[in-house]
Task: inverse folding
């Protein structure tokens, strides 16, 4: 994979120019993307800043995120050739910091669950996951050092686990969603994909203006291992990855203990989909009203079902989520991080599904930061998920880096 | 003014058709808008549904709210002639319920504070307020029965007070902001303008799918009168309007008592602007980066200042807001509604300012529902503001209607 920290070190040392770093990406794309199909558009002649903490860093932008210089097509024929007026807030910020939005990456239609044609870089018969399919595949395949995705259920952490790259779904609204197509305003969260946890920390600090975001974290963190029994069991490969991550964390000095989640969290988990679908019915009201027949079957089905959800049921679900957030906040008095599965197992053997978000839904609803750490071992990648308290993105990254280092050592 | 309830009654009785109701608005616009200038675009041939709870209701849509059939120009030359692909969620919902988005109404650039050319319908030398200038003026002048605005500081309640119409800024995200240009994602709230409180309740129920939203409210409500001393004194006309509203509420059986707000609320009020400006700097990053010189001076100044705000100051401000929301929630254990000023006084004698939002900022930051009730008496309108607990939009409307009725009686 292409590492941001490595590219930046070479640029700082004068052995690589920003333009040269962008060319490395173009060469990788030319050589390998034919087998993957991660992109819907590539900028032939982008501005390449010479300065800034992200100078020389090419970024893949999920195609539900607005770009003024490239089409933004939402993974849907309804937006074929659509050109927004402005860059999304996160794209504008990336450019300000020197990054180059080089390409738009594939997305399931409106970031829902109808698969893309993108293939897993580790085995073309497997899904890369979704909805941020192209971003995860591009970084996992070493075509780009940084990509933007969004997560409403599990659309950042799951594809990162399937494609073998690091990723963060930050605290809710740490990165603004301005200029990002809405599916659920209470859930949609912009996330980052990169080669390793250090790359994520560097990029998140640059994007948010929060220098040293992962400094000052606990050196011997207390880690709660959580299996989310309410979401059914994981597959053996995911269980094995979690066990390897636990052992690595202990070797690195962390205090690791199993923990069952209080029932309020299971109750919130059960209601994630209701909140998502109720809001999607409103957010995509124009598309549903005027272009229902052009919607692919899964998102169309979600929007059909949305009409059956009453405001009272939605209000009740939000109250459950609110209660669970307070319970989770108290739980973080006892722990510095939660460690759990990123996905039920490796990428499924199929391009007909983007996989299952059941181990991601709760954390998206809680708005807490989640980091995928790839766990070396199997032919197909499997990751583990490190979760921090709301606003504790730096602590979550620090624990993720500790586990990543220990797994490599 | 044109009343939704009146128009709907005539349509139900068969004495007016939906198309006839739309024609009434066109005739009023032709006769009076030349002196006001409330519109930036009018649809010459809109679809006019025959059915639905809002059939025959023409709506003015603030020009930062996306419409597929009419340009959406954000009050800025940067968006001259811009045509979004889709309708905003609230516009789509209005159409689904039978309403006709007849016109786009003037807005200050990006819903900030640079005045529009719109004039107050009660005196053309006075501001209609802002940022939802055209929507407030159009309803206040009797040109339309319903209009959409947005409030980030005081941009719904203040212009409604200045233009003499009823308005509601509902609970945060009760009406989705999907397809609405963002200034501050933690604050921006879509609101409604109409002739009276009953019209607002009817329209809000239709837009949100919450039938009977204002039923079941307390019949002898406990009302806390709050003067927001931290925001300086109001002018005599606003004080007199508040006194008249208090007396009317007591005549109608309400329990009215003065109340000083706890210090946590003043602390939050002080930090509203910081949150607003920090987020605006990111939300309008593309406009600032690429078109700074095309921005009018006030919004440009706000964005210049935004760059000086640190993430740590923003985080601190959000913690203060969070704390204040909990204090306010407890306070609503003792009261059914808060009654306070809608604005410091009547509309200022000038078109160079949109007036002062200092009595509105706190409530926008708290996310609680606010209703403007016009208080008859003076030549230039003055309103009072009824505030409910978060999610208690129906209760706030019921108390506002009680005061409105008592003021008329």
Result:
């Amino acid at each position: 994979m292409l590492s941001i920290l490595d590219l930046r070190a070479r640029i700082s040392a004068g052995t690589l120019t920003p333009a040269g770093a962008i060319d490395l990406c173009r060469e990788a794309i030319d050589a390998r993307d034919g087998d993957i199909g991660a992109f819907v558009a590539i900028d032939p002649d982008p501005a390449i800043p010479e300065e800034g903490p992200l100078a020389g860093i090419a970024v893949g932008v999920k195609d539900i995120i607005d770009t003024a210089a490239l089409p933004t097509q939402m993974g849907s024929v309804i937006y074929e050739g659509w050109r927004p007026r402005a860059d999304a807030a996160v794209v504008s910020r990336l450019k300000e910091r020197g990054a180059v939005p080089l390409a738009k990456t594939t997305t399931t239609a409106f970031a829902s669950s109808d698969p893309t044609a993108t293939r897993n870089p580790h085995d073309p018969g497997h899904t890369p996951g979704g909805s941020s399919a192209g971003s995860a595949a591009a970084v996992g395949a070493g075509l780009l050092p940084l990509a933007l995705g969004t997560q409403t259920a599990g659309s950042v952490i799951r594809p990162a686990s399937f494609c073998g790259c690091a990723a963060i779904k930050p605290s809710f609204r740490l990165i603004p969603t301005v200029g990002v197509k809405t599916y659920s305003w209470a859930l949609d969260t912009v996330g980052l994909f990169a080669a390793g946890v250090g790359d994520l920390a560097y990029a998140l600090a640059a994007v948010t203006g929060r220098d040293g975001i992962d400094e000052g974290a606990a050196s011997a963190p207390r880690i709660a291992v959580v299996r989310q029994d309410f979401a059914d069991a994981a597959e053996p490969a995911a269980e094995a990855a979690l066990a390897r991550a636990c052992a690595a964390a202990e070797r690195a000095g962390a205090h690791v203990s199993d923990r069952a989640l209080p029932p309020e969290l299971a109750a919130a988990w059960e209601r994630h989909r209701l909140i998502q679908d109720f809001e999607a019915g409103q957010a995509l009201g124009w598309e549903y009203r005027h272009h229902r027949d052009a919607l692919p079957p899964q998102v169309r089905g979600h929007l059909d079902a949305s009409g059956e959800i009453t405001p009272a049921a939605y209000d009740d679900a939000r109250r459950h989520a609110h209660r669970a957030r307070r319970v989770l906040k108290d739980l973080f008095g006892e722990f510095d991080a939660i460690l759990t599965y990123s996905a039920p197992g490796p990428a499924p053997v199929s391009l007909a599904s983007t996989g299952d978000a059941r181990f991601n839904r709760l954390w998206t609803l809680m708005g807490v930061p989640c980091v995928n750490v790839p766990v070396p071992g199997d032919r197909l990648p499997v990751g583990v998920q490190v979760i921090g308290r709301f606003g504790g993105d730096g602590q979550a990254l620090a624990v993720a880096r500790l586990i990543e280092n220990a797994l490599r050592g």
Summary: The mean pLDDT of chain B is 97.
